[in-house]
Specification:
globular; 4-stranded mixed beta sheet; 42% strand; 186 residues; 2 helices
């Protein structure tokens, strides 16, 4: 998927959770080019997949690659390259050093000129109220805009959806005075 955001454009990309079926090999490549005044929020939840026998991580591979470029009058420059590769046949993905005993992974990428350490600290405080294990990092600044990457590990799709929803709600309220997203599917 290729996305281009113009001046002062805003995109909130919050798809349903990713459920890879048994023996699936899923690859998602997202390329985002945005202007320094653009605002991007991307969230993703990856589950342990689905198999007829109910076993987790029966898929071959899930590969998510997000490349984000900032386009200024001087040209385009890479802000962030985010790669996530889960290959269950290669070893125990739930073990130490990878999923740390958890089964679900949540991710959020935010790029906006208002991203700063204070926002990262506020999101850290918000996520610390949750049972998920979370981490937040800032990217470098390109053309006056900065990125933020949040990763969360949990054993529940619902918990990660609530956590990411709360983070997005904080951004919507702070930056636009808007209410939380309502993504009911009934």
């Amino acid at each position: 998927m290729a996305i281009r955001l113009g001046e002062a454009a805003r995109l909130e990309l919050v798809p349903d959770q990713l459920i890879a079926y048994r023996e699936a090999s899923y690859r998602q490549r997202t390329s985002v080019t945005l202007r320094p005044t653009s605002s991007l929020v991307m969230a993703e939840v990856v589950t342990p997949g689905w198999s007829p026998d109910g076993a987790a991580f029966r898929y071959e591979e899930v590969r998510l690659r997000n490349g984000i470029h900032v386009e200024t009058d001087e040209g385009s420059e890479l802000l962030a390259l985010d790669n996530l590769l889960i290959r269950p046949p290669s070893g125990d993905v739930t073990g130490l050093g990878f999923m740390e005993g958890f089964s679900h992974l949540g991710s959020m990428i935010v790029v906006d000129p208002r991203v700063d350490q204070a926002l990262a600290d506020d999101l850290h405080r918000l996520t610390s109220e949750n049972d998920a294990l979370t981490g937040i990092s800032l990217t470098r600044t390109v053309g006056g805009t900065t990125g933020l990457v949040l990763r969360a590990l949990s054993n529940s799709t619902g918990e990660l959806n609530l956590l990411l929803g709360a983070c997005i709600a904080l951004l919507r309220k702070r930056w636009y005075g808007q209410e939380p997203l309502n993504l009911r599917k009934h």
